[in-house]
Amino acid sequence: MGDKKRIFKVKVVNFLLKHGAELLEVRTGEVENDPKACTFLFANDDKLSGALIALKEYNKAKRLTLK
Fold this sequence. Notes:
There is one protein chain. This protein is of the alpha+beta class. It has one domain. It is built from 2 helices and 3 strands, in the order βαββα. It has helices at residues 10-18, 46-66; strands at residues 4-7, 23-28, 38-43. A 3-stranded antiparallel beta sheet has the order 1-3-2, with helices on one face. It is flat. It starts with a strand and ends with a helix. The relative contact order is 0.24.
């Protein structure tokens, strides 16, 4: 895997942190249309993979309950 993964949405960042992903760095000024927006860099490892899978399952379950 690569060494870093960029995440832009704060809600996603919070979910990933709660599920054990490792936050490496927070940057500003990387988003062209919104210079104040933050970019969150995570270690691209097994912890992040697990957290992203959990996020996918969470969103899937959430969609099913809305139907």
